[in-house]
Design brief:
The protein is an alpha/beta fold. It contains 20 helices and 14 strands. It has helices spanning 22-27, 36-56, 61-76, 79-89, 96-101, 115-132, 141-157, 168-176, 180-197, 270-276, 298-316, 329-341, 376-389, 394-404, 406-419, 428-434, 441-453, 491-495, 544-550, 559-568, and strands at residues 223-228, 232-237, 249-252, 281-286, 322-327, 352-358, 391-392, 439-440, 463-464, 467-468, 478-483, 505-510, 528-535, 552-555.
């Protein structure tokens, strides 16, 4: 992945940099909801903005300029703040303890002069800019956060750890290896550059010979594809116990990712763990869309994804209630579907025994630093960027997530691989993370505008299938999982469902981040979680901070805690495993869609 937002590596329709002809404009695809009368003018605007977005990697220079203008104008009229900054600039330097607390400068080599001075000067400069971009009266909160985030990213780029001349650890490694570490780093950089610039269809060897291929090294839990439509495949996994719980488990992963994050290597597969505990497990495997699927929307994923999978699982399991599980965006979709199915005039798609949401947001009022990329100007440029190609490329999306933690995911990695010549040890989670997917234009635009920007779901304005829904209509018991260091779905944002749903909620806060906190198999070292039994409807509301203070810390994986919760909400009488698709199989797991590039 790259350190900044990238222009599309692939495009369904070639876009010339020259001025568009009237014929090309009239043939260009329209935005979702664009009227015929407005189409020609908006198409011209989209073409111009798409060219600008390609140059800026999708970042809106207008939105960025407004944020910095807001900050600069208010700072210019704040003499008190200026005096505070002047006082801070003249204050005592950063201490050695503060330097060691930053992981980039924790090594013993950084405690020697002049390197300690380099680190102290950098951290003092960093503190100054943090103060300079926060706490200024009159600056819009969003603008202030954008300026602070941008200043932090620019400073991290200039950290002394990123340069040979100012990094003692790099110099020591080069001296001890006779320059071999620098040569290895240069070769690593060359390989990555060739891979990035390779034309479509050309295969460039990966940095390691170790591969993680679905169906070969990962996604190995035995199962059958029992249903397929143009949007998804449904996998039913083979039982590994003589009897099973009556209620099956249906997992709906996010289509931002490929499903096998929940079925990685056998030792850390959530799917394998569940079938070994006696659960019948179904998994949705989403189709990786291209330009032809540009008009797939949120309702399509609900009707032809979630509802279609519920229908199949319900029919195969004798209409038994279903434990539903949603991960990330799949969890948001599941919450929408569960609310729609809980309404008085709900469509019939089986009965929900429970709803589990893994790192999934339903209230987007505080989405964390990802919200810095969400405002009207930014979404206009992002829509324009997706407009011609018909989808958001996986590399573009991955670069946005990576930018949120550029210090660790970009600069520290580049220093290690390009200056020290050390490649990161490969693992199945890293390989999955590089297996990018695409997002249809209409769906992604609806998702960002209706959920992130306007927060329609939490505020009661969201419509599914033309019907208004409310999260208070969810009647099945809820199990929520947040992770401590989640930069995609911050746990306090996940927790907000407590204010919106009437059903009892069990909440778990797991150690780790958005992915590693969920893939937390039993026996994994240094894992822990916090848990508090469900709040009943009659209980008083607990804030996130109150929950944190009252919850209990447990060592190990949260999976057994969740599995025991599933068992308590299942029938006590076991049944014989259901026959896969009544003997009709469309092929073995992992199926075809997960292999789509």
């Amino acid at each position: 992945m790259n350190s900044k937002l990238k222009t599309p590596a692939k495009s369904a329709v070639a876009v010339r940099a020259s001025s568009p002809s009237s014929a090309s404009l009239s043939a260009a695809p329209a935005l979702p909801g664009m009227t015929a009368a407005a189409s020609a003018g908006q198409t011209l605007d989209l073409f111009v903005q798409s060219q600008m977005a390609k140059l800026t990697g999708g970042v809106s220079p207008i939105g960025m300029g407004l944020a910095f203008m807001d900050w600069a104008c208010h700072l210019a009229t704040s003499p008190g703040k200026q005096l505070e900054l002047l006082t801070q600039a003249c204050s005592a330097p950063v201490t050695a303890d503060t330097t060691r607390a930053d992981g980039r400068f924790a090594g013993a080599a950084w405690q020697r002069w002049p390197y300690q001075q380099y680190a102290q000067n950098f951290l003092q400069y960093q503190q100054f800019w943090d103060q300079a971009t926060t706490g200024i009266r009159g600056v819009a909160p969003h603008h202030g956060q954008v300026v602070n985030f941008t200043a932090r990213q620019l400073l991290d780029m200039l950290a002394p750890s990123n340069f040979v001349a100012t990094n003692p650890e790099v110099q020591q490694a080069a001296s001890e290896s006779g320059g071999h570490s620098l040569m290895e780093g240069a070769l690593n950089w060359r390989k990555d550059l060739c891979r990035r610039l390779a034309p479509p269809g050309m295969t460039v060897p990966e940095p390691t010979d170790k591969q993680y291929r679905p169906g070969v090294e990962v996604a190995l839990t035995p199962g059958e594809v029992i249903f397929r439509n143009e949007l998804m495949e449904l996998i039913q996994y083979r039982p590994q116990t003589d009897s099973v719980y009556r209620e099956p488990v249906l997992i709906v992963p996010s289509w931002i990712m490929k499903y096998y994050i929940l079925d990685l290597s056998p030792e850390n597969s959530l799917v394998r763990y569940l079938v070994q505990q006696g659960h019948t497990v179904f998994m949705v495997s989403w189709h990786n869309p291209g330009a032809a699927e540009r008009n797939l929307g949120m309702d399509d994923y609900l009707e032809r994804g979630l509802y279609a999978a519920l229908d199949q699982a319900s029919a195969l399991c004798a209409q038994a209630p279903i434990h539903t599980v949603g991960y990330c965006l799949g969890g948001t979709l599941l919450a929408i579907g569960a609310a729609a199915l809980g309404a008085a005039d709900a469509p019939q798609h089986g009965t929900l025994a429970s709803v589990t949401l893994l790192a999934a947001q339903t209230d987007f009022s505080e989405p964390g630093e990802l919200g810095l990329f969400i405002d009207d100007s930014e979404l206009a440029f992002l829509d324009a960027l997706m407009w011609k190609q018909g989808y958001l490329d996986g590399d573009q999306m991955a670069a946005s997530f990576q930018l949120l933690h550029a210090r660790d995911l970009v600069w520290s990695r580049m220093m290690r691989e390009y200056l020290l010549g050390q490649r990161s040890a490969p693992n199945d989670l890293m390989a999955w993370n590089a297996d990018a997917t695409r997002l249809p234009f209409r769906m992604h635009s609806e998702y960002l505008h209706r959920l992130f920007l306007r927060n329609d779901l939490a505020e009661g304005r969201y419509q599914a299938g033309g019907r208004s829904i409310a999260l208070s209509d969810i009647v099945a018991p809820l199990f929520l999982v947040g992770t401590e260091r989640d930069h995609v779905s911050p746990w306090r944002s996940v927790y907000k469902l407590h204010r919106l749903a009437a059903a009892p909620i069990d909440f778990v806060l797991a150690s780790g981040g958005h992915n590693a906190g969920i893939v937390s198999e039993p026996g994994h070292a240094h894992r822990s979680y916090r848990h508090l039994p469900a709040c009943e409807a009659s209980d008083n509301y607990r804030s996130a901070e109150q929950w944190l203070a009252q919850s209990e810390l447990a060592q190990g994986s949260w999976w057994p805690c969740w599995q025991q919760w599933l068992a308590r909400h299942s029938s006590s009488q076991p049944v014989a495993p259901p026959q896969a698709a009544r003997g009709q199989s469309l092929g073995p797991a992992p199926g075809h869609f997960v292999l789509d590039a």
